Amino acid sequence: MLTALYVPANRPDRFAKAVAAGPDVVVFDLEDAVPVDDKAGARGWAVAWIAANAHGPVEVRVNAPGTPWIEDDLAAVAAVPSVRIRLPKVEGAADVCAVLEKVPTARITALIESPLGLEKAFEIATADPRVVAVALGEADLSSALGVDGPAGLAWARGRLVSASRAAGLGAPMMSVFPRVNDDEGLRASCLEGRALGFVGRTAIHPRQLATIVECFTPTPGQIAEAEGLLAAVEKAGVADGGVIVLADGRMVDPAMVGRAREVTTLMREIELRS
């Protein structure tokens, strides 16, 4: 998946529009986007709409562990077959396991939003096979760490990428970019994340989706380079090991082959989703 789009669960008028915008997954938000007085209504609207209309991947961001609303959230989403839960403010495996005890059929995206959660990123990612992804909640994390901007988050982002890969979950998606009208800022931020190993991003407005897809899609030059490298390796008969030197003088070892395969596989998956 390259794109996920948040929609406030207290705005049922936006549900169909969010799906029609074409993200890979729509995230119905019961947490930050919903005022306290709207929590119960939002919960009911989201679950009812998903049951009646959702035919593609959806997630429900429930309220955080320890809040007054989490139990009712879990009871409601338990009625949704094979529900994907986006669980905020996870600080350890116990938070994930407690949710799965209540909703055993769920698949969990664990949001890491505190220094403690970041320190336990690998533990969280491997808490249970039903954890399918980990992601950062960068606004809360930035505040807790006392940092500003991408430089302050670079280490945390790299830590999450490493934990996700080590857990066998693949490349994680980036957190949201909060400035909806700043297209160039979004593009620059996506390219920074791509360089750190992220693939895809969560959005808070449909207008951000096209830029996200553009930034995380391999360029024609990258695809041609990867395909050329793989063809040369195949021709030399060292696809599974060994080293060759390409015509341009580059030495190719198995690590480079693996990365080239990732690029071509990602491109095939993007073409299939189009």
What does this entry look like structurally?
The chain has 274 residues and is an alpha/beta fold. The chain has 2 domains: 3-216, Phosphoenolpyruvate-binding domains (TIM Barrel), CATH 3.20.20; 220-273, no CATH class. 49% of the residues lie in helices and 14% in strands. It is built from 12 helices and 9 strands. It has helices at 15-20, 39-53, 70-77, 93-102, 115-119, 121-125, 138-145, 149-166, 183-196, 209-216, 220-236, 254-273; strands at 3-8, 25-29, 58-61, 84-87, 107-112, 131-136, 201-203, 244-245, 251-252. Strands 6-5-4-3-2-1-7 form a 7-stranded parallel sheet. Strands 8-9 form a two-stranded antiparallel sheet. α2 (39-53) runs parallel beside α3 and α9 runs parallel beside α10. It is globular and about 65 Å long. The model has no long low-confidence stretch (mean pLDDT 91).
Number of helices: 12
Unreliable stretches, pLDDT < 50, 5 or more residues?
A: none
Helix-strand makeup class? alpha/beta
Output the strand order for the largest sheet.
Answer: 6-5-4-3-2-1-7
- Strand share of the residues? 5-15%
Q: Average pLDDT value? A: 91
Number of strands: 9
Number of domains: 2
Indicate the CATH architecture of the largest domain: Alpha-Beta Barrel
Distance between the termini: 12 Å
Helix and strand run:
EHEHEHEHEHHEHHHEHHEEH
* Morphology call: globular
In the CATH hierarchy, what is the superfamily of the largest domain? Phosphoenolpyruvate-binding domains
Radius of gyration: 20 Å
Main sheet characteristics: 7 strands, parallel
Give the CATH topology of the largest domain. TIM Barrel
**Proportion of residues in helical segments:** 40-55%
